[in-house]
Amino acid sequence: MNDAATAAWLRLVRCAGVGPVLGQRLLAHFGDPQTLFDAGPGAWRKLGLAEAPMAALQQPDEAGIAADLAWLDGSPRRQLLPLDDPRYPARLKSLPHAPLALFALGDPDLLPLPQLAIVGSRAASPQGRANATAFAEALAQRGLTITSGLAAGIDGAAHEGALSAGGLTIAVCATGLDQVYPARHRALAHRIAEQGLLLSEFPVGVKPLPEHFPRRNRLISGLSLGVLVVEAAHGSGSLITARLAAEQGREVFAIPGSIHNPQARGCHQLIRQGAKLVESVDDILEELGPQVGPAWRQALGEAPPSDTPEADTDPLLRALGDEALDVDSLLVRVGGDLGQLASALLALELSGQVVQTGDGRYSAVRKPVV
Fold first, then answer.
1. What's the rounded Cα separation, in Å, for the pair 14 and 9?
2. Residue 354 forms beta bridges with which residues?
3. The pTM is what?
C-alpha cells in the first residue's frame, strides 16, 4: 500500500459520523477510499448520503492523519491493516460492523491462528487470577493464541500466562496504540508488542472512553473461536463479551466458583444460560478441536494429560475450604490459640497459599488443575 492509499484509508477511518456500516457501504460502491474521495459530493448525494456524513467526508482531520502517519513511520512493527489487506483477520471481516481498518503493533501473522479469548473481572480474586494464568499457560502450550483486553485483573493474568509459557498472545486495546491503558500494564504491553500483537481499531491519540470498551469487546470475541470467562460479577463487561461471542456464533465457556464469591455469579449466570462449564483445558479443547486444522489437532493429541488434583494436606487450608473466613470463625474450626493461628496464617500468606481479603477475612489460593 503506497503513502497516498494509506492516507486515504486514515482519512476515512477518522471521518466522524462514518462508522463501519456506512463506510463499508461506501467502499462497496466506490471500491477504495481514494476513489470515494475523488468522486466528490455529487456522487455521494446520488447514494442518498445525509448532510452530516457528507460534511465529514469533505473535512479531513489533517492533524490526526499526520499523527497516524508519523506513528506508522516510527517502526516497521507498526502497521495499518485496512479491510482490503490480506492480513485483515477473516473471522473478524465476516462480521457486521467490522472495523474499516486495524492498527497493529507487533506480529500480524498471529491473526489467522486459532485464538481463544480469556476475559473476566478487573477486581479479580487471587484465585481467579491464578486460574486465568494457569488456563492461559496450558492452552498456549497446546497451540492456542490467547486473546484478551490488556485490562487489570483476569485480562492481565491471561496475557502473563501465555507469555510465561512461551506462547502467543494478542491484546485488543480500547485506545490508540500510542497509549497504554491501564498505565500499570505498560511493561506488559511492551512485552506483548515484542512477543505477540497489540491491536486496536482506534487511531493515534484516542483516549480510553467508556463507550470504547464494548467496541473493543466485540473485536476480542470476533477474533476468537471461543471466549472463556474466568470471573465476572453481575453487570460485568465480560458478560457483554460473552453475549457478543454468542451472537457471533462463538463458543462460550465459564469457570464456576464459590457461591460465596460475588465475582463468580456472572459465570454461574452464563452456565445457566448455556455456556459450557469448564473444569480443565480438555473441556475447551474438545469443543474447539473440530474447528481447527489437522496440524493443530495433531499437536493437541501430543499434549500431556492434565494433572490430578491433590488434596489439601495443611489443616488450615482444609478448614478454609472454598470459603473466606475471619480469624474467629477459623479459630473455632481448627482450635488452638490465637497466636499459633496468626503465625500459621502468616506463613501461608508468605507462600502464596492464603490471601487476606479487603474485609479482613482469609481465603485459600489453590494451584489450579488445568
1. 9
2. 364
3. 0.85
